[in-house]
Write a structure and sequence with these properties.
By secondary structure, this protein is of the alpha/beta class. The protein has one domain. The chain has nine helices and nine strands. The longest helix has 13 residues.
Length: 256
């Protein structure tokens, strides 16, 4: 694969989308319900992608703590800014990654609105959508809109989309060329993705999402509103709805 070095520095992310509506695109089932026209329009807007959402929307920014997810995203969205959250700030294992240090959110912690040049830090809590939310604040978003961030169960947008699952399987094969890269985790997310691809959709819908971060999202929202930001959810249900996001349709969100 051709190596493309990051075209931005950490400090370039500060207020990069000042006053804009930024879409955080998650891998929940809602993403499978969007029309081609809506997906194409989202790809023209400031978007933060996570997990495998690049198979539906080409994001402006892609954020993950997992190297495998970055490699797969790079295949489908080569023009994105790839932000790699790591336990310590260190040179990235791939040159197209922009590394930041990640820190666990705990009660009383303040979300900073800018990245520091010496210690660029994203605050999260074992939930990449939280890291994406902090990134949206740093980017200067006036409105943050969540799409496909339900987290009601273990289901995904691709569970019943066989053509998309075929693309994901092809991307998983590419990961074999990167087996020797140093990883920050003792397991690879490719194993998790593979298992999800082979699990019947009804079983995924019956499985819990994992840790419920409703209270953490609610605190993030409180602080972002303190900076003048507004929070919206385009999904009819989900963790961000429970945390206090204002409901909005996709069509309405495109006019914010």
């Amino acid at each position: 694969m051709e190596i493309i070095r990051p075209t931005v520095h950490h400090l370039d992310l500060n207020h990069r989308e000042e006053g804009a509506t930024v879409f955080i695109v998650g891998a929940g089932p809602q993403l499978a319900t969007l029309s081609r026209e809506m997906l194409a329009e989202l790809s023209r807007r400031p978007t933060i992608g996570v997990n495998l959402t690049q198979h539906m929307v080409a994001p402006s920014y892609f954020i993950s703590a997992y190297l495998d997810h970055h490699i797969m995203a790079r295949l489908r969205a080569p023009d994105a800014v790839f932000i790699h959250m790591r336990p310590v700030l260190a040179p990235p294992p791939l040159d197209f990654l922009l590394p930041v240090r990640r820190q666990r959110f705990d009660p009383g912690m303040i979300l900073h609105a800018e990245l520091d040049a010496e210690d660029p830090l994203i605050i999260t809590r074992r939930n990449v959508a939280l890291g994406a939310t902090h990134l949206a604040l740093i980017l200067g978003a006036r409105n943050i809109v969540y799409i496909g961030v339900e987290q009601d169960n273990a289901s995904h947008f691709y569970d019943e989309l066989e053509p998309v699952k075929a693309l994901i399987r092809a991307d998983l094969e590419v990961l074999k060329d990167y087996r020797d890269l140093p990883r920050d985790h003792g397991y690879t997310t490719s194993e998790i993705v593979t298992a999800a691809l082979e699990t019947p959709p009804h079983e995924l819908r019956a499985q819990p999402f994992g840790e419920d971060h409703t209270d953490v999202f609610a605190e993030y929202f409180r602080q972002i509103r303190g900076h003048g930001g507004a929070i919206y959810s385009a999904s009819a249900s989900g963790v961000v709805n429970r945390a206090g996001a204002e409901p909005v349709t996709i069509e309405q969100s495109l006019d914010l």
